[in-house]
């Protein structure tokens, strides 16, 4: 069994890097604070006897040797970057639970057959550089590295130059190698486990998610003398499109999601009808077919309302992450570990994207969830119960041992 | 009669400063380009024999002496600053028509009883520094100069430091002095004169306009695992408030206006429900009582929908400019001049704020409109007919002469 207190202490120490006034964390990808967090993790892993490798995407792999160096490793990991107003657990927990597994095995003097690895994936959040999960995405062959390097933040800085600047552009090419299995433990980021009073979630997959930029272009005119009738006002289209997309999500039931995380107006002058609104749209559904229907309906709604309001609507696909089903052997290893340990549990699908989405394309993959307070995440108030975090790390330990030893 | 070709040439020369690709002008207040425009105007006025005075708000007064230096002057003028995607005529026309009046009187060797002045008012647009008409607003005692100096643009630069930087912070205190009368000629910025085929608008007043910031605060959460039901999503409040405000404008008839020129989301991350949306709201009506009703209803609507969506709504008053009625003697001088000159005309109210709104509080004031193409303004495609611009300048010339000599 892992040392829950040591895991908690590591989480709290990491949380001091980028700590916010409201008790959260702002440690965005490839910032100076991200570098500090990475440096601390690397130091801890070295102290635990691991060797470190950093690849050309800044992904970090800390390796604990196995008895048989020729066997492919069993990997775990997640991310250290946060949302701008993020919490202390999203991602970080998965990384430090991996470290805790290594420390626990060291304490108990247990050697595994296959090597174990703890990974830190770069820019999982997609908050500073869109899209999300770009470190694991390049590693698994889903994105070109050149595409990733050219991504810019709002200040116009590129991923490539920021990676170089913080000193985490490694020599090893970012590409998949054989893995015996990959696991990731994460807070649920939703309210289900807490509501149903279950301590552990056994994940069968991840819902599909599509990201878009919707651009509405009208005709700028003066706020005073221009009659309402003749206007081609992007806000007139916007409010109707929002209304219809919320109704679309309602129509496709409790699992459909429609989220608008960002918007900007151009030219953005108080007394001028904007020429242009750019809205970030995020649609999700666990059933790939339903998500594709939502995608089609979104395009129809935008076109219909644009025509009615005499505004132009253009949709740019920013990211498409189809629904994922995890490897049955990995799911079974998690299920069996939960049973051995006697935790209350629920089989479920993840509503959030995780690095495991991309890893699952090149290696057998599974995931474990633990509850978080009120289901809150991407929020500085994000919180979790140390006992639940310990339970998740125990399941991770057992599942990794199963896959590493046979 | 004025020289219409010379007026047009001056407009086109001024329009080269800040010219945009789409044929408009981006010469925002207190930028380097604003300085260039001011320098050109000052040079032209000096060449026309005027003395120049710049006050502590950067307002420029070019004076043509009268026979009797003790008489209060007859003033005209407008502004040289533009919207970020502005046109070649809004404001500039009123300034250069004033210069054309001076040049015409010089050509004809006409001396007036009272002195004449052509004014350039600083930051009329309110686009770079809110609120609008701040130069004439301080001069007429409506705003404190300290308040004006402390206004910031989006980059955080203050009005005061930018005024100093471009070298237009003058010695003369910005405060009203006695004026015999003040006139302003401006493009209509709306479609009425064009639609009714009238060449000149005789203005009886300006509609009231209120500016607000509406802040909607919800609870940030993750775009995936958070069920739609439990969200406190500012966009859910936004679309319903927009819908109701457009309906409010429709309810109060063809003269009511509801405009949303700018919006921002915080933290503004694609996969996070925003904590906060800040929307710029502009409500207008020519009838002060109706505008006050709209103001009250806006507050009720925001509160009602905020409660229903479990979002907080806060309204900050950014600017309140009540409806204005112009001085009857000035209106009569414009009316009589139009009649003498035989132009088709219409008595009307301005839908846009103008420096004359503030000047009318401390001096007898009147305004003249000319049509603009398709009623478009605050748009790079803004255009006007040289013949109409000449007609407006002729009316200005006659009205000024009436007040300066009698
Ligand atoms: N867990 C997480 O925040 N992932 C980012 C991708 C997503 O938006 O789901
Ligand atoms: N004419 C003009 O654009 N004035 C600015 C104030 C307003 O928004 O009406």
Automatic annotation (TrEMBL), chains A, B:
Keywords: Hydrolase, Metal-binding, Zinc. Zn(2+) 1 binds at residues 79, 90, 186. Its EC number is 3.5.1.87. Its cofactor is Zn(2+). Zn(2+) 2 binds at residues 90, 125, 378. Binds 2 Zn(2+) ions per subunit. Signal peptide: none annotated. InterPro entries: Amidase_Cbmase, Bact_exopeptidase_dim_dom, Peptidase_M20, Peptidase_M20_dimer. This is N-carbamoyl-L-amino acid hydrolase. It comes from Microbulbifer aggregans. The lineage of its organism: Bacteria, Pseudomonadati, Pseudomonadota, Gammaproteobacteria, Cellvibrionales. The gene is amaB.
